[in-house]
Q: What sequence folds into this?
């Protein structure tokens, strides 16, 4: 998965807007996003679009977010909407409707909805249930935050002397995702987990707690994790996980090594970085034959 | 605080859109929101606008959200943006920029930014720090989720045998908000807490843990809490807390008692419910004289 987290300051000079307006900045981000989609399609199966980087541009950015999802689908890419919403009761249902369910409006089609979203489950089951129901109905999925990559989260996750909060979250995600109507033919649930790779032993222990949970794995690349540290995130058959790289791919044109390979063709730099990323991760996954049979 | 959580299905018949489009629905919500603002201004000091109810209408709803904030300011109301964002590192900074900081664009002014936002701190200090810095720079505030009103949250908050997660969150919020440059002349920090009233003893214990933390108190009205159960949320001087009512006020026109008082004037029903709410809560707060001296 290539993560699309664009900030205006790091876009190529050619894309910088003339005027510092919300609309101009959103248009620049959208143009950049379209180029990234074209560069990585066919190399990776999915993109993750980080809502925060579009929300900073208010309604203009949010419009670009949804249009980029639709464009990614035209490229044959799956889309993870990285929204990390989490709330209770009726508010949770509204977030699920806005970010995952099939729209009920004549001017908004399924093409602008992501195939999965990230969800914060810290307010309990009702926060997750609304998204799980929307996922089941629409044939989509969700990834619940289980173990963040930021060491700053330890102050929360390690407050209890006896057990880690992320272990408890893993057990809850396993339970919430175990209903028979949430598990597909491939044996994986539509309720997934976001799990950052840390030391191999603790990652393997989490994998054992989550036998039918698909993982979204952050932290590769600019955040420091290498392919080898992602290996315990996969099941024994090489399935059950996707690895995300954001800045190391979309800003490849800032790196001297890619500039030397691709000159000032910044889209070619992104494509080359996506190829390197995919080649680095591919040995962890199933073989092509196994992938065809395990889905 | 009156909470603005509008769903299309419950709006007065006169506001229902002709066409089921995102733009039409967002326009109906915005019109309704403007009427609510006019009805409650001068009766309550602030409104809380729940982002989820606008995000369900994608960019059209998000535009309405920001325009309603600006309109509330024209009415002299303070605004709490109920966005419950929480993320780490650079993503947290982007959320803080989009939802609390002064915009850096020529077509977006301070008037469309809320005076405070709700924040999820479950990913640790970096999730909160970005908002606290934005609050300090802009003279605004944040309310970190400490104790949710939903009993479904117990599965998270009571997982540790020795202590409650919400007690731990309270201690963290106290620590995060204690820096000298975050505490104002009134003795309260710009880092607040969302604390639902439950049994009086546990609420009073949380109040003692948070001596200089302003509280946003959910759960009044449609969610079941009465004024008396909110009393332990206030400090001894009657300051330090605001109580929110949403559905019991904005949908007052659905209640027979208000229909009998105000006929089919749905705006008058909302105004009457806001007056009843304010009269019910006022005895908990400071006297008018004390309010003037404690801010």
A:
């Amino acid at each position: 998965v290539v993560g699309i987290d664009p900030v205006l300051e790091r876009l190529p000079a050619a894309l910088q807007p003339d005027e510092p307006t919300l609309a101009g900045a959103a248009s620049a981000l959208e143009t950049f996003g379209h180029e990234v989609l074209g560069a990585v399609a066919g190399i990776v199966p999915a993109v993750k679009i980080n809502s925060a980087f579009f929300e900073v541009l208010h309604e203009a950015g949010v419009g670009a977010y949804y249009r980029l999802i639709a464009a990614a689908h035209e490229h044959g890419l799956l889309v993870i909407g990285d929204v990390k919403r989490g709330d209770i009761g009726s508010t949770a249902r509204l977030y699920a409707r806005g970010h995952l369910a099939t729209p009920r409006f004549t001017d908004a089609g399924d093409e602008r909805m992501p195939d999965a979203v990230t969800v914060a489950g810290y307010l309990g089951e009702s926060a997750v249930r609304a998204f799980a129901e929307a996922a089941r109905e629409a044939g989509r999925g969700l990834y619940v935050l289980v173990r963040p990559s930021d060491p700053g989260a330890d102050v929360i996750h390690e407050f209890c002397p006896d057990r880690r909060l992320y272990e408890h979250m893993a057990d809850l995600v396993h339970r919430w995702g175990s209903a028979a109507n949430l598990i597909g033919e491939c044996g994986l649930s539509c309720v997934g987990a976001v799990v950052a790779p840390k030391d191999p032993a603790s990652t393997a222990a989490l994998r054992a707690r989550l036998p039918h949970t698909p993982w979204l794995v952050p932290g590769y690349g600019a955040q420091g994790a290498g392919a080898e540290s992602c290996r315990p995130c996969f099941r024994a058959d090489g399935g059950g996980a996707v690895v995300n790289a954001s800045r190391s791919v979309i800003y490849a044109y800032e790196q001297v090594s890619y500039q030397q390979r691709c000159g000032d063709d910044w889209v070619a730099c992104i494509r080359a970085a996506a190829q390197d990323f995919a080649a680095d991760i591919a040995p962890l996954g199933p073989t092509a034959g196994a992938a065809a049979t395990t889905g």
Remarks:
- The first strand of chain B starts at residue 2 and ends at 4.
- The beta strands of chain B are 2-4, 46-50, 78-85, 116-119, 141-147, 191-195, 215-217, 241-243.
- Chain B has a mean pLDDT of 94.
